[in-house]
Amino acid sequence: MFELVHPGWSKGLEGRTLESRPSLKDMSIDELRGFFISMGEEGYRAEQVMSWMYRHGVRSFSEMTNLSKSLRDRLAQKASLDDPQVLARRDSRDGYATKYLVGLRDGNAVETVVLRYSYGTSICISTQVGCRMACRFCASALGGFVRNLTAGEMMNQILVAQGGFGGEGDRITHIVLMGSGEPLDNYVETLKFIRLAHHPQGFGIGYRRITVSTCGLVPGIDRLAGEGIPVTLSVSLHAPDDGLRDRLVPVNRVYPLRELIPACARFVDRTGRRITFEYVLLAGINDAPRDARRLAARLEGLVAHVNLIPFNPVRGKANKRPSAEAVDVFRSVLEEEGVSCTVRRELGLDIDAACGQLRRRYGEDTQGFGE
């Protein structure tokens, strides 16, 4: 069993908060400057407050000691900091992974995962409560789509992981938007989050250390390519042909491979960044050597890397994990065909690491999150 959601929070209509004051964490740097100017203050106050929110992780305006007391009092009346609540934490036995279940002000919750590698510490960020994409092997969509997250709710996931609220945490060096939800389905808030996380008074994380994952929303891929930010694009492919992908990734019926692959090529051309294709290996479904050869043919001429992911068992899904031998054969065929690929190093199998699983377990124990 887990602790109940914070008793001071309440459930809003359609999954939204009842808090009437705007959250400063939901504002871009330009919006934050405008907010202070509207209060009759200088715009530079935005950078000061950003530093307090993200660099120092303060919980109240009273802690922002380089602001006058009168300004702090006015801020407390006009705005909020929208602090999150850690509902649950799971640490893997090997110490390489930690999953947090983060409570939101409206009674919902999302997961975020910290993964520790030799090159740094990565955080897997959720962008939505639930997901509407309905990929056949994913736990995120089992409860359906609830709502989009705000940029501030995404920033709060990093604050939780870094121990920004007085606890012990990790220094995050890399961001992967690959938690619950489809980032490009929540485009405006996702982009605002990326820019905030990159800002020197945010977390100062370089764009090249930020990965945006998508199941294949072609308009969003093209839009992201034109933003002028060199983030990495990761595309959840999972099948070498439209027939199989239609079943595994339903959005393929809207944006089939004949549209998706050219969009990926355009992204490479405009950004100069190599694309990563995620490919979950499902026993007896998409893990045969012939599937590997067809996948290689599909990606011919594209600057890309394939990340092979043996299926991580999910309650409620009948798919099975392929054998280690089948995974090795699939990888070998791709390499023989000249495709750059790796098998993902798996961390956190003992802590409900697949997106959506911890939230689902918690919801069963506490009768939901306001859905």
Description of the structure:
With 371 residues, the chain is of the alpha/beta class. The chain has two domains: 20-78, DNA polymerase, domain 1; 85-366, Aldolase class I (TIM Barrel), CATH 3.20.20. Helix content is 32%, strand content 17%. The protein contains eleven helices and twelve strands. The chain has helices spanning 29-38, 45-55, 69-78, 151-161, 187-198, 218-225, 242-248, 257-271, 289-298, 324-336, 357-366, and strands at residues 85-91, 97-103, 109-117, 120-124, 128-129, 147-148, 174-177, 210-214, 232-236, 275-281, 304-310, 341-343. The strands form two sheets. Strands 1-2-3-4-7-8-9-10-11-12 form a ten-stranded mixed sheet, sandwiched between helices. The protein has a two-stranded antiparallel ribbon with strand order 5-6. Helix 9 links the parallel strand 10 (275-281) and strand 11 (304-310). Helix 9 packs parallel to helix 10. The chain starts with 28 loop residues before the first helix and ends in a 5-residue tail after the last helix. Residues 1-17 and 362-371 have low confidence and may be disordered.
